[in-house]
Amino acid sequence: MIIIQLILYCLLFTLMVKLAVRNNAINALYFYPKPVQERAVALGLATREKVSRDMKIFMTAFYLVMLTVLVLIIGLWNSVSDFGTAYLQAVLFLEVMNWYDGIVIDRLWVGYSKLWLIKGTEDIPYIKTWKQVLIKRLVLTLVWMVGGAVVAGMIVLIF
Question: What are the two backbone dihedrals, phi and then psi, of residue 110, each rounded to the nearest 5 degrees?
Fold first, then answer.
């Protein structure tokens, strides 16, 4: 059952990103490196203020949805109420999401889909290298170990 839950959780992650980008990468310009953002602003495709506002709106909604769903999966669907089990499941979900984001989203989807191309910025690298993905995901692996404790604490308090 947990494999199905992990797949559903990653599909939700993908849906949230797709909703952010819709059918135009400029809608999710905040995902891009600063040089791409600066070029898009220089080309008049966006403003710094809009990029900043869009990022705040998306990230707030994204974290609230993903956290709420994670707490509900572990606490309600899996009927977990003890800290140890909640922690292990939270870390599992957060780490799978972490590596899914780096490999499937950053490298495969962004790397091979024309959806993520922004006209006028084609000469600026925007796809993370394998080294960048590895470094970021290893750092986030440590972050999510702490995040798992926060999620587990919430589950114990709620359920």
Answer: -65, -35
